[in-house]
């Protein structure tokens, strides 16, 4: 059993792994059906997390549509040299009784959690669209220096959601 809340990273991307076009536009890469399914994930988690880049660029509401929610607190933490202190963040959320966190932030937040080995599950909605080289990638951070160092996942589920595909995977540990 882990000493931190369950971390689920949800991303919505094009087939070439982009979450936004070169101009930053990202609404809507995936379908309404995928967005509704993503709201189901929000309802199942005790917290939804975005990074400062996503907050500034998209000003997301982070609300759950079509579901009852008991509270909608915002927790802000001071930055450290490397970004957020993930241990402090997870401790603060755990102390609030949060048992599952939905990462909905952009590539920097996801990359930080991945590099720290904190992601317990990935749910990726892949849309049948190609954005190309100028688009924003789904994942940032140091990445693997070679293919042998790439983070490997077990594909647990593949489901068609409207015109999109939802992939669910867990890390091979």
Report the uncertain regions. Answer: 53-60
The fold-level CATH name is Dihydrofolate Reductase, subunit A
Structural category: alpha/beta
Largest sheet, in brief, is: 6 strands, mixed
Assigned CATH architecture = 3-Layer(aba) Sandwich
Task: Provide the number of structural domains.
Answer: 1
Q: What is the string of SSEs from the N terminus onward?
A: EEHEHEEHEHEEEE
Question: Rg from C-alpha positions?
Answer: 16 Å
Structural notes for this entry:
By secondary structure, this protein is an alpha/beta fold. It has one domain: Dihydrofolate Reductase, subunit A (3-Layer(aba) Sandwich). Helices cover 23% and strands 28% of the residues. It contains four helices and ten strands; from the N terminus they run ββαβαββαβαββββ. The protein has helices at 32-44, 52-58, 86-95, 107-115; strands at residues 6-14, 18-20, 47-49, 79-80, 83-84, 100-103, 121-127, 136-137, 153-161, 164-171. The protein has a six-stranded mixed beta sheet, with helices on one face. The longest helix has 13 residues, at 32-44.
């Amino acid at each position: 059993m882990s000493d931190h809340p369950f971390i689920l990273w949800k991303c919505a991307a094009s087939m070439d792994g982009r979450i936004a076009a070169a101009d930053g536009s990202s609404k809507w890469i995936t379908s309404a059906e995928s967005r509704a399914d993503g709201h189901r994930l929000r309802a199942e988690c005790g917290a939804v997390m975005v990074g400062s880049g996503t907050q500034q660029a998209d000003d997301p509401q982070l609300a759950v549509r079509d579901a009852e929610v008991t509270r909608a607190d915002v927790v802000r933490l001071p930055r450290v040299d490397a970004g957020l202190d993930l241990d402090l963040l997870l401790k603060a959320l755990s102390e609030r009784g949060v048992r599952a966190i939905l990462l909905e932030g952009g590539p920097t937040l996801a990359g930080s959690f991945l590099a720290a080995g904190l992601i317990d599950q990935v749910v990726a909605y892949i849309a049948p669209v190609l954005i190309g080289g100028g688009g924003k990638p789904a994942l940032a951070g140091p990445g693997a220096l070679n293919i042998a160092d790439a983070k490997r996942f077990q594909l647990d589920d593949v489901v068609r959601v409207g015109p999109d595909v939802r992939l669910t995977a867990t890390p091979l540990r």
